[in-house]
């Protein structure tokens, strides 16, 4: 059996995703009309504009990365009556508003006009009810007519808008502007953890998604402003983006380097090939150091992205920053090794030197930036912790500060690291 979905980039119909059910084979081909006038560029760095049909692996790796991981798809499938392995079925059911500006529709359908918005404001009680239902209805699947979203990421989340402190559901293809996460089960104060790490990144000068904590019926919820949106004439519009698994055509199940996924040098190589600025390349190195300092072992290839303005690519702001080190039950090994070392306790200045060489960057330059960051981050971390604690009390901030201080001492040249 052959089935197809129309693929859109923003408002443009760009091509067809096809699926042969007998062998579970995929293919993607650009539409000839779009190739004649590719107003928004290629769908992916891994899918350059061409008149040939892309094979199953290349097509699958891009489109499967638009979906949440298997653990979420398993629960999502219960609502949608789909097997977690039915990637095409999920794209057909919830591909109408993917991350960035990609959308997929059946042959008889297409995106709603961008100049028409459909939304529904929620009362505080209704918002809490929906957020609490995410554990049995991930992404609020089939929760309301016109609400469609395909969200990557393992944690339950609601894709919405925040307008004057009120949650508003975008319907019938209307762009969302925020991601809302309830506390993660089994992890103390995960909302405060992520909020603190995002704010700390911004305070030390790293580009990071804007975050806040929203109180609903006395409970905190983490809110992140979407970086893949821009405001045009007072209305949000989608920006195209893709994570590094898509850029590098990697199966989403191989997002960790230990599973055969991308490493730091792979990411740096493709950043250069995409002609992203030298300053951004150095900021990528800074982000690697920051993730180590806060103890974020989950900085894998799907938690790093590029965003496009027109046909120009740049690194996306940092997102999904969490100190995993403060939870003893989680892995102590980083998703991407640093100079071949992955365990927090094994990473040293020599690790960063080796990483620099593998990335064709001066080790002296990398260590100089590392030292500057180690000196700067501890006092800023303490100040930001005090400010966060005043608004949202938690012991988690102190535990993260201790992790940062320990890691900075280990690496900084003046502290015997």
Description:
This protein folds into three domains: about 1-105, no CATH class; about 120-225, 2-Layer Sandwich (Phosphorylase Kinase, domain 1); about 235-415, Phosphatidylinositol 3-kinase Catalytic Subunit, Chain A, Domain 5 (Orthogonal Bundle), CATH 1.10.1070. The protein is an alpha+beta fold. The longest helix is centred in the C-terminal third of the chain and has 29 residues, at about 365-390. A hairpin with a 2-residue loop joins strand 1 and strand 2 (about 10-20). Helices cover about 35% and strands about 20% of the residues. It is globular, with a radius of gyration of 21 Å. The protein contains twelve helices and 17 strands. The chain has helices spanning about 30-35, 55-65, 70-80, 85-95, 125-130, 190-205, 245, 265-275, 280-295, 350-360, 365-390, 395-410, and strands at about 1-10, 10-20, 25-30, 100-105, 120, 160-165, 165-170, 180, 210-215, 220-225, 230, 235-240, 240-245, 305-310, 310-315, 335-340, 340-345. About 45% of the residues are buried. The strands form five sheets. Strands 5-7-6-8-10-9 form a six-stranded antiparallel β-sheet.
């Amino acid at each position: 059996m052959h089935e197809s979905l129309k693929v859109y980039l923003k408002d443009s119909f760009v091509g067809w995703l096809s699926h042969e059910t007998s062998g579970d084979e995929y293919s993607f081909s650009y539409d000839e009309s779009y190739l004649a006038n590719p107003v928004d560029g290629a769908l992916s760095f891994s899918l350059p504009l061409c008149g040939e049909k892309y094979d199953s692996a290349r097509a699958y790796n891009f489109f499967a990365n638009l979906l949440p991981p298997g653990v979420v798809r398993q629960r999502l499938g219960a609502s949608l009556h789909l097997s977690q392995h039915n990637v095409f079925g999920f794209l057909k059911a919830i591909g109408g508003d993917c991350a960035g500006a990609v959308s997929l529709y059946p042959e008889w359908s297409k995106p709603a006009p961008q100049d028409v918005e459909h939304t529904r404001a929620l009362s505080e009680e209704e918002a809490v009810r929906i957020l609490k239902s995410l554990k049995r209805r991930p992404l609020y699947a089939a929760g309301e007519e016109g609400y469609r979203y395909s969200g990557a990421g393992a944690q339950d989340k609601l894709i919405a808008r925040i307008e004057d402190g009120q949650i508003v559901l975008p319907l019938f293809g209307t762009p969302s502007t925020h991601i809302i996460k309830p506390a993660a089960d089994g992890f103390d104060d995960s909302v405060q953890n992520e909020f603190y790490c995002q704010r700390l990144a911004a305070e030390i000068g790293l580009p990071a998604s804007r975050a806040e904590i929203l109180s609903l019926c006395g409970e905190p919820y983490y809110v992140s402003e979407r970086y893949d949106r821009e405001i045009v004439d007072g209305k949000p519009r989608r920006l195209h983006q893709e994570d590094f698994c898509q850029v590098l055509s990697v199966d989403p199940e191989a997002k960790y380097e230990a599973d055969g996924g991308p490493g730091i040098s792979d990411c740096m190589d493709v950043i250069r090939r995409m002609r992203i600025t030298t300053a951004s390349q150095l900021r990528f190195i800074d982000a690697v150091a920051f993730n180590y300092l806060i103890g974020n072992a989950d900085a894998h290839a799907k938690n790093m992205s590029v965003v496009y303005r027109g046909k120009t690519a740049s690194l996306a702001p940092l997102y999904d920053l969490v100190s995993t080190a403060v939870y003893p039950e989680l892995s102590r090994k980083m998703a991407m090794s640093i100079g071949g070392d992955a365990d927090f306790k094994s990473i040293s200045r020599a690790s960063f030197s080796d990483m620099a060489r593998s990335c064709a960057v001066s080790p002296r330059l990398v260590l100089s930036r590392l030292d500057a960051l180690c000196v700067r981050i501890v006092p800023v971390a303490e100040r930001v912790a005090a400010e966060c604690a005043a608004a949202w009390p938690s012991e988690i901030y102190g535990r993260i500060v201790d992790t940062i201080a320990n890691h900075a001492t280990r690496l900084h040249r003046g502290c015997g690291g």
